[in-house]
Design goal:
50% helix; 19 helices; 436 residues
Length: 436
């Protein structure tokens, strides 16, 4: 279900329904023309009436008011706002299971605000970089982390429509960040990530290597003119690569590799290990149209590996299982998908994914953890970076636009982005970067 659909869990952020931010805040009189028109629109969908009542109840309880008229008093009375802020922080602390005094709760809520800002900055910094001037945030909203202040901005006609929308957007993103933080504390993700690194260093990588020791090599690849698919790849040492000047349709890509040992054979492997940052998890919740991170975010810990051949991939998979046993844990592989064989097509469930994508993907359950593994050969990894319709940069653009997340966060009537045109232009932008 798209985040833009009528039954989306993010209805309150949509700009094409009864909860849209308008040129005037929701403080008009009960019998005003604006309010009457809004009520008529709300009544078109009984589900929206239920959502509105729930939101109003939460709003009034959070601000400790009984009517919208009382919200006006809060906007004007700084002392009263400060008292309500203390109470609101206590409520949030209990809701998200934050242990500590008021300052500790405030510090945690400030972290949620920084995550909310990071979500927007991550999009501005990459997917919509050429359009940064269209979508940059209002300074006053960026520096406001107090949820009560942000909420009151939504009802303050002294703020422009764009600022009031951004205040609402920041509050919703902060709520998602809070849910993610609560989930991370419940699952003890920080300690699990440290344990995973310790497992890799202690049992998986070659004992002849120091921790963090990497061997740099270059992949010299040739790509088809039609779709930039890799047709040939050679591994070169840095000295060999110095004499190579890639022609059109060629790439020289640096990777730094570790190794693992099976018997007397050392097998080189490029590895990227990651714990998904909070802002990436927030974006995943939006793409999945889900507010519960326990349901939507199943890849908190992940490892991507690149090996020279399919036989090396199989050897690594077996080595992982044996290494887990040495660490006194059974390793069970779940949700296995293998399309490294070119006769098999990838059937990705994610919006924007291509059936041309080749990889081995599975989840490994070991040592009390569930880790996502994505394994490539040199050729499939180069396609993952460069091939038309497969390249990860293109995939990011498609999934952010096609799930409706860009339109939800940057609606046309506020940010003046023509979303379909922008999507196609960004795909062309990344293709030009890749092929230049």
């Amino acid at each position: 279900m798209s985040v833009l659909s009528p039954n989306s869990v993010f209805t309150s952020l949509q700009q094409h329904g009864p909860f849209a931010v308008t040129s005037q805040s929701m403080t008009a009189g009960i019998f005003s023309v604006q309010t009457r028109e809004w009520v008529k629109q709300l009544q078109q969908d009984p589900n929206n009436i239920t959502k509105y009542r729930a939101l109003r109840s939460q709003l009034f309880e959070f601000l400790e008011v009984d009517s919208f008229e009382q919200i006006k008093l809060l906007v004007e009375d700084k002392t009263l706002r400060e008292k309500r802020t203390e109470r609101a922080l206590c409520l949030l602390g209990n809701m998200f299971g934050i242990n500590g005094n008021l300052n500790e709760i405030k510090s945690r809520v400030d972290d949620y605000a920084r995550t909310a800002d990071a979500v927007i900055h991550s999009i501005i910094g990459k997917i919509l970089a050429p359009y940064a001037s269209h979508i940059e945030a209002t300074n006053e909203i960026e520096v406001t982390n107090n949820p009560v202040e942000l909420l009151l901005i939504m009802f303050n006609d002294g703020y422009h429509k764009k600022a009031r929308f951004e205040a609402r957007r920041k509050l919703i993103l902060m709520t998602l960040a809070g849910s993610i933080d609560q989930r991370e504390r419940e699952t003890d993700i920080e300690n699990k990530f440290s344990s995973f690194l310790a497992f890799l260093n202690g049992y998986v990588w070659s004992p002849n290597l120091k921790i963090g020791e990497l061997d740099p090599v270059y992949l010299h690849s040739t790509h088809r003119k039609e779709d930039y698919r890799c047709v040939d790849v050679t591994v070169l040492s840095p000295q060999q690569a110095e004499s190579i000047k890639p022609a059109k349709g060629e790439k020289l890509t640096l990777i730094k590799r570790r190794s693992f040992t099976v018997g007397v054979k050392n097998t080189p492997i490029y590895v990227a290990i990651r714990k998904k940052p909070p802002e990436a998890k927030v974006l995943k919740l939006l793409r999945k149209n889900e507010k519960n991170p326990a349901v939507a975010v199943d890849d908190e810990l992940g490892l991507m590996a690149v090996l020279d051949s399919v036989s090396d991939v199989k050897a690594f998979q077996q080595h992982l299982t044996r290494s887990a046993a040495k660490a006194d844990s059974l390793m069970v592989l779940e949700d296995i998908s293998d399309t490294l064989n070119e006769q098999t097509h990838y059937r990705g469930r994610a919006v924007g994914s291509s059936d041309k994508t080749a990889m081995m993907k599975f989840f490994a359950r070991l040592g009390g953890m569930r880790v996502e593994f994505i394994i490539h050969t040199n050729r499939s990894w180069l396609n993952y970076i460069y091939q038309q319709d497969v390249a990860h940069n293109e995939y990011e653009v498609k999934r952010m636009f096609d799930t409706g997340v860009i339109e939800l966060l940057f609606p046309m009537d506020i940010f003046h982005l023509k979303h379909l045109n922008t999507r196609n232009e960004m795909l062309q932008f990344f293709r030009k970067q890749i092929e230049s």
